[in-house]
TrEMBL record:
One of its GO terms (molecular function) is diguanylate cyclase activity. It comes from Massilia terrae. It is an enzyme of class 2 (transferase). The keyword Plastid does not apply. This is diguanylate cyclase. The chain crosses the membrane at residues 61-82, 94-112, 118-137, 149-167, 187-205.
Amino acid sequence: MDSTALVLALGNLVLCATLFFFDYGSPRDGATVAWSLGRQFQAGAWLLLALGGSGVFPEALALPAGYALLFGGVAWEAGAFWEAAGRPRWRRPTMAALAIAIGLFLACYRVDENGLRAVAASLILGVFYLSAALALARGWRDASMLRRFLSVSGALLALVVAARGVLVLAMPQGWGWLSNGLLRECYIFALYGLMLLYAFGKLLLGREKLQQDLARLQVVDPVTDVPNRRGFFNLLAPWMSLARRPGQATALVTLDLDQFKRVNDGYGHLAGDAVLRHVAEVCKRQLRDSDQLGRLVGGAFAILLPRTGLEEASLVAERMRAAIEGSPCKTERALIAMTASFGVTTIRPDDSTVTLFQRADAALQEAKRNGRNRVEQAALVTTLEEA
Ligand SMILES: Nc1nc2c(ncn2[C@@H]2O[C@H](COP(=O)(O)OP(=O)(O)OP(=O)(O)O)[C@@H](O)[C@H]2O)c(=O)[nH]1
């Protein structure tokens, strides 16, 4: 029995099972399901090739079927990497490429059972493996070292697989020390390498993504996808330091949705979440790129407006107020109209985050007391209290 094919069959099965039972900590996504399916195809294919080679199955049947299954498995694995890279529509082009590849392989097999068949198999496998490496290279600039390593090593090994086909075609007798036997050994080494590289790569990339998601959750609100309290305070810190130097003012606006509890009570928490997302979007549309919106708690948001004075910040807050009032949120059950109250202040040189928010919140409470759906400036509130 062909030991190479058997090792590849069992290796793929073991790796697939390892990943299947490995606890990701998150539900299995489409890419992982496709990857697992691809690996099972590959394991089945290598097993079929091993059985065909040893005479258990008629070779004339096992060989074409085994290779067709193998191409499908590798194509599906590459597709899984494309899906993970944000290209979910890989199935149709992959099916088309697969149909062409299988047709080409069967034609070569009919013409020359050994030589041309091996050339076609190497080239087809090389191209599909290269496609997986390209998927891993997507977003190269922001990619982690792990992703870059997997992409480069995957591409090199895929080139070795494809090179065997090209070299056998160009120099059937080999070239100097580069004999056909050596080429075949390199080819098998590259196939083993790809099997291990992409399997452990998938495992490590899953871990990496989980860690990135956890790190992101610490500073980003999952409902609205804007910075949460901690994230917002991180963004605020440098502006607090800058405020100690003379220069242009930086403003802070706090916003609280009016009677938000009623939305939750009347339409349910999911509708409440939809309203929060909607309000965040409406506010963002009124802000500059340099402004920062964050969600503090419940229906309360804060907006940092760099290089903005009190009057200008009040105008921005007024714009947001009018936009929220004028664009009800469409949910499955109803069109929910919302209003919000605002408190506006600027960062003072002697401010801490506590005093800054105390002032903005005092203005916000004043807006609530004055009937909601309005904007109040902290300076006015302070003057009134002092008077
Ligand atoms: N849907 C949803 N609701 C939340 C979330 N976090 C907090 N809440 C709810 O937000 C509501 C906050 O209400 P409050 O700010 O106390 O009061 P209000 O009804 O907005 O009334 P006023 O502020 O006085 O106008 C509560 O009902 C919380 O249960 C969340 O993530 N999603």
